[in-house]
Amino acid sequence: MLTIVNQLRLALLELFTTTKYRIILISLVLIAAFISVSELAVAKLFTKIILHEGTLSQTKLIVFVGAFFLFFGGTRAGHFLQRIYRVNVFDKAFKESSSEVTGAKDNWRWSLAFELTNLLSTFTQLGVIVLFFTYFNWIFGLIDIAILFLVFEVYGRLFKHQMEAQRGFVTARKNKIPIANVVRIGTRIKSGETGILLSGIAMIVLLGALIYFSYNGDISKANTVVLFFGLRMQNSNLSNISTGLMRFARARTHSE
């Protein structure tokens, strides 16, 4: 897991050499985290509308439905703008960088920047989701943290192995040693899919815990539905991190 943290930190310092653009990048990451919180808030609002539909007055129902569509549209628009704006940030940051990179290295630098931003955003979203879980039920939150720790320990090992494999591919290319596509691509896909399988197992365990807490009355039905949406979002983030780390490893080694 420390290997992942160190590589992300080094990539951030190397790609964004000025404090100004590091702050802008962190701001974009925080915006992505805010969007994830908003999506969970939208799920909470949607659940409130559905479960209390018969007891709400017509005025309140209209207000809640209007707020739901407003929040949902806002999260989609924010996600779109955040992903579009970062392209301009990358361009300006690279132009102000003291190191000049051309040709294929520049292409890999762009790929590395996209993968870095995606991973930082996803990690931040994951952190916010964990806080969200802990807020609803601290025991469930602690169980989630423990499981995520185990997942990322495995992710770290997969990532370290992928970095070594990709460096081997780079060396082979320099020495004009042919590597079959099934090996180059298959290695990355196998590692990514292994991580996705692991995230699925974690999802099943956490769903079991959620059902248990809901059955015992420790979590209300409305919050159970929201936490279910949160678990699906967390599982999606873990899957994205798994495949994203493997693409990051490829871009990182090819841009060195």
Explain the overall architecture.
The protein has 256 residues and is mainly α. Helix content is 88%, strand content 0%. It has seven helices and no strands. It has helices at residues 2-15, 19-51, 58-95, 104-136, 138-174, 181-215, 221-255. Helix 2 (19-51) packs antiparallel against helix 3 (58-95) and helix 5 runs antiparallel to helix 6. The radius of gyration is 21 Å and the shape is globular.
Task: Please summarize what this structure is.
With 256 residues, the protein is mostly helical.
SSE string: HHHHHHH
* Total count of helical runs of at least 4 residues: 7
What percent of residues adopt helix (DSSP H or I)?
over 70%
**SSE-based structural type:** mainly alpha
Runs with pLDDT <50, length 5+? Answer: none
Judging from the principal axes of the Cα atoms, what is the shape? globular
Mean pLDDT over all positions = 84
**Largest sheet composition:** none
Strand-residue fraction? under 5%
Rg is: 21 Å
Distance between the termini: 21 Å
Number of strands: 0
